[in-house]
């Protein structure tokens, strides 16, 4: 009887432990150290280490060691002090005609080699992309959930002066930045394809706002359409064949769907007030959008081709931006009661059926919510105490990162 | 004794299975490293029909101002509309008038541009009611991109919530 009792108690203990394992906690992330074999220390080596560290952290799968260890990549042994880690990533960076990196991933306990890889890029100022690729590759080697969003370009428009802007390509940390369109007023960049070869943007340089598509590799520019008043490409279908536009051919901002090949237009909303920001929900047969049909900006849902419009959000009095990925919806909500002065905008995540609302931010002005392509991470722009940053939230691990961002961002996509 | 052994074995099995941290098994070597994007272009549109960069209205017309978050014309602005209609009746002839809707810095993304457009539309409707041909009115919204001032004051924000009027070809 005594043994039976002990057995039952033991079973109960492990039943509790099994439940706890569902929540990804600190102990479940792999402990990893970075060992730099780049030789003489330089500014580039420090920046490269910091980028690798940030990537490991935001992945949600690793607990990176803060120490910038030094050691040869050729040496196949693991220092005794690192034996307690799960993995050791050794790398060597060299600048000769661009940037070259040799990377070796070791199992820390027995020094077994798990992966070897050589990388080379032509332009040293793209080093952040090299670091992101290394981390997403070792993440894949270890079969953790996909973090290839690290490798994607972020495209954003920034005001320079009145009626002037630039459109910039960046890596997700904003360490790499390149102006792709300067001069005039060009706004609302939106990736046109999943490979990020082209993006749509609205030019205000003629009499009417005009939508163009720019190939970022060969510079070819295609005029898509024009509209009186305003014109924005709000979303692009998975295969790139259809786009959601906010436009106003009759001076009335409504949401339209365009077939990119035929340029044929289909009006989705028809309201005398403001309907903007259409985003495809999963299956691309319905959209979420922002409308003031209740007298203030709020989030609504509508089937494409249907007539019924349903209110999705029942909190806040100014919910003026939305994004969607599959069945997940992300929106920003103004929390402050004053018209001016200290504003607070926070981001909320919910399901497209209206359930499970969860706050993602709690302080500052958090705007421009954007899902990553796979929906596992969120990008946003944060203004807090006169500082502007681009922020990322890993929705699974709840890891967050902020990177400094200068100037006034007009719109952003990744 | 036999029961003791069985129980001991059961506990050992539970201990090893319950406490193990499931780490993914590594998948051997990765090889080459393609997939990092190649160099991209940079284009300059300064010379392409650039905006003149002016603020406020021109050609003798006055800007029309709006309350926070609103796009209906206030009673105070009726005299400004009447003045603008009068100017247009004299000067418009075969030309067009461009109404540029503007917003303060509050609000983000597309909503602010739609708000600017609705303000321009409200001015258009009022001018039309005063006899101006709708076919000669062009609307464009500049959202928050065209502020007249940058101070964080109510007066400044109010100056930025406006519709500018310009004669064009």
Total count of domains of chain A = 2
Q: What would you call the shape of chain A?
A: globular
Mean pLDDT of chain B: 80
Give the distance, in angstroms, between the N- and C-terminal Cα atoms of chain A.
63 Å
Tell me, what is the CATH class of the largest domain in chain A? Mainly Beta
CATH architecture group name of the domain at 65-168 in chain B: 2-Layer Sandwich
Helix/strand structural class of chain B: alpha+beta
How would you concisely characterize the structure shown here?
The complex is a heterodimer of chains A (414) and B (169). Chain A is mainly beta and 414 residues long. Helices cover 12% and strands 43% of the residues of chain A.
Report on the architecture of this protein:
The complex is a heterodimer of chains A (414) and B (169). In chain A, a hairpin with a 6-residue loop joins strand 15 and strand 16 (254-259). Chain A has 2 domains: 28-148, 3-Layer(aba) Sandwich (Rossmann fold), CATH 3.40.50.10070; 152-413, Neuraminidase. In chain A, strands 1, 2, 3, 4, 5 and 6 form a 6-stranded mixed β-sheet that branches. Chain A has helices at 2-20, 43-59, 127-141; strands at 30-36, 62-64, 69-70, 87-94, 99-107, 113-121, 154-159, 165-170, 177-182, 186-191, 198-203, 210-215, 221-226, 231-236, 242-247, 254-259, 265-267, 275-280, 286-291, 298-303, 309-311, 321-325, 328-334, 345-351, 358-359, 365-371, 377-384, 387-394, 400-404, 408-413. Chain A is mainly β. By secondary structure, chain B is α+β, with helices and mostly antiparallel strands. Chain B has a domain at 65-168: OmpA-like domain (60s Ribosomal Protein L30, Chain: A). Chain B has helices at 2-19, 78-91, 109-129, 154-160, and strands at residues 43-44, 64-65, 96-101, 137-141, 162-168. Chain B has a 4-stranded mixed β-sheet. Residues 13-33 and 49-54 of chain B have low confidence and may be disordered. Classes of the chains: A mainly beta (414), B alpha+beta (169). At the A-B interface, helix 1, strand 6, helix 3, strand 9 and strand 10 of A face helix 1, strand 1, helix 3 and strand 4 of B. Strand 9 of chain A pairs parallel with strand 1 (43-44) of chain B, so a sheet runs across the interface.
